[in-house]
Please model this.
Amino acid sequence: MKIDYELLTDLYQLTMAQGYWESGQNTTQACFHMYFRDYPFKGGFAIACGMAQLADLIDSFTFTDEDVAYLASLDAPGGGKLFNPAFLERLRSFRLNVNIDAVVEGTVVFPHEPLVRVTGPIVDCQLIETALLNCVNFQTLVATKAARVCLAAQAPVAEFGLRRAQGAAGGVWASRAAVVGGCASTSNVLAGQLFDVPVSGTHAHSWVMSFPDELTAFRAYAQAFPRNCVLLVDTYDVEQGIDHAITVGLEMRERGERLAGIRIDSGDLAWLAKMARGKLDAAGLQDCSIVLSNDLDEYTIQSIRDEGAQVGSWGVGTKLACAYDQPTLGGVYKLSATKAPGQSAWEDRLKISESAAKLTTPGVLDIRRYYYSDGRIAGDMVYDVYSEVDEREVIVDPCDDLRMKKLAGKSFETLLQPLARDGVTVLKPSLRSARAAQARAQAGLATLDESQKRILNPHTYPVGLEYGLFERRRDLVVRLKGIA
Amino acid sequence: MKIDYELLTDLYQLTMAQGYWESGQNTTQACFHMYFRDYPFKGGFAIACGMAQLADLIDSFTFTDEDVAYLASLDAPGGGKLFNPAFLERLRSFRLNVNIDAVVEGTVVFPHEPLVRVTGPIVDCQLIETALLNCVNFQTLVATKAARVCLAAQAPVAEFGLRRAQGAAGGVWASRAAVVGGCASTSNVLAGQLFDVPVSGTHAHSWVMSFPDELTAFRAYAQAFPRNCVLLVDTYDVEQGIDHAITVGLEMRERGERLAGIRIDSGDLAWLAKMARGKLDAAGLQDCSIVLSNDLDEYTIQSIRDEGAQVGSWGVGTKLACAYDQPTLGGVYKLSATKAPGQSAWEDRLKISESAAKLTTPGVLDIRRYYYSDGRIAGDMVYDVYSEVDEREVIVDPCDDLRMKKLAGKSFETLLQPLARDGVTVLKPSLRSARAAQARAQAGLATLDESQKRILNPHTYPVGLEYGLFERRRDLVVRLKGIA
Model:
């Protein structure tokens, strides 16, 4: 599934690009950061995802003749053509010249810290903004949702939201991100092919309906798939469906085969699962697993488990693939520093807003993640790579300067890793793998305190600006506001 | 942006396909319908969309060698390979052999009526299910959201949700569907190129931040784009931004140019818009339009207009492209009839559920739309094309058999149109155009009563099953339940 990232953008990136060239600003170097401001799903963490597609973006970013012809056809609202031929000629030979540093996929991340840093000519930085946000926003959101669902499930989760997902790539990226977040498999075959993630699935209600009766349908399925037989028991009547599945399960056992499971897709799932377990056990089919599905999410799964239902695995669709209760991450991409030709040092840039959460952070940033000696994470510091970190190693909450924490003496690692240099992807193949990212997410979640993984009202992890950076930001606000 | 629709599917469609072949069911003819059960956004209508992509799906549906090699690599959970070589060999030469009838894009539609009817070998019908739902569910959802937003706006709406959309195709399809639903333009350049929809956009906050000061940034933009100049005034301070824009607007007028507008993207939009209008008018810039944006939807737009703000156009992003308050339509694709080899007539198929809304409708269905003599629509009848319509022309609500309506004597049209015959698309090029679909949606909305277009608590339009079909369905439930 090839995506034309060079045109997967907002028109204003291209009008600005022409403007930068015409005003001589195109030689200005810029630094942008992508970050989000609020915990998704009111949770306690997020799982970074989408950086492999970001690498694809860099690798395939060229304006074709067709692209240029399309742009040349656009009219300006006030008459004439929107773009100048000279600008379009430049696009034809345009090659990205950015450096990108990003957290590695699967990393546990938090609000207000840079997930991606882009530096390079301001035009290049802007031309990739929209596609970059599209890649990282959605996949980070779904990976996070999946991690929450899997924490609640405590058993394998299969993702199958493609039919309700937001478009083809929405579905395919959702399936990949779901696996990164912890899902055992997806129903999405194209995602399996593209990303080497496990695929799973057996049959639908229509299989049962297409046969004269349910028992015949179950027997035919067991015949065709003796090593992948999960029977869907709720087409007509769940209790009768379980009885039919037991009949077929016992027949399979006589043939030396095994009924792997039954799936219940409607009704009161907790009640039905307990009833089904009783019937299966009584029939001697203790090894037949129960699969539940039907509009599940982390909340319904937790409730079903709280009632004591023994569930072998879960199928989660719409509410996972679409991150139903919060369908976007809301991540932003903000200019934080510029360097005009001849300037040797970066100059801070700031966007002021009425709300503290929307104030940007200046500088060229990275994240230091500090650890307690037992391996749990202690706090994240957003710092400027070109400034000395104050020796007290204090972080200040970007939205509340009375909340601060001293991290001196603890071990730390920095989180941003090179993804591209001079427009060429340098991301190692091992860092593009969804399965490896899944393992990384699991390891990262293990460094969180249980209280930070709670589904409802989790404990908030300390993330802040390095003390000196915080003071620099405040001084800049005061100066731009004309207060001092 | 090429999409591999043949693998854009749930794995169980392929396992069922193998099962159908092995059990000899593959020669059975099936009839499926795609429909949704609930009004999206608790509104009073939906706008059908996605049928052009459905035609693309039919046109490009072939299993490549790479596809087959991928499927051959899959293991069964219980050991061995999941698929038989003989089945995979069949896939290699597989050609879709379905007939598809669908409502035309842009048609106003309602719950419980078939938007798409697929007939053909059961294997073929199932293999396209997931991709079909993915195409039609999401795009119908966004077209509907866009129609609601545009009804509230009563002025041009530009869609710019790509950065927050669910993946690349999620964004591209959302932009197309937004135009079908009524948006004047999109910021999404790739959607513009692919679907010939109008694109729009000027500059971002970063443009302003990259210059030494706001006034210089505005002047540079006006210089570069004298015929497409909308200045974003809220980077530092809105009131000062408006003053700077007025300065540049007056300079443009002296050069014989025109400041087209200013955009406000934060703060209290209603209050700021009124303040801006006052300042612009006082400066003699009555022809400078005000553009508002910032997390808008139909509710906030209506509220801003209710306060009397004069808004020239609106920019709507996240909440439109992601249909934020309801991110999926929830449409389903249900088997309704089969015809075994040698059978001459279709045999009814029904899925029973505890809830009336989830009970399926049997038969081979179409929609009759009845009209009052003044052109307003009077009611929709879902009927079986192979059964005589009862002469009273009565419809019965599928979820409440006490609600019925007599439609005899009114004129009607039928809504399903051929989209594919024997696996070949027959959809006319004019029916693939997003702009034509937009015009059709506008004409359709004009046939609704105002009360049906209300944003909150709209009047419910009568949709029901033809009386004979309703009775047939009830008899079938009674029989399958073993009650009679």
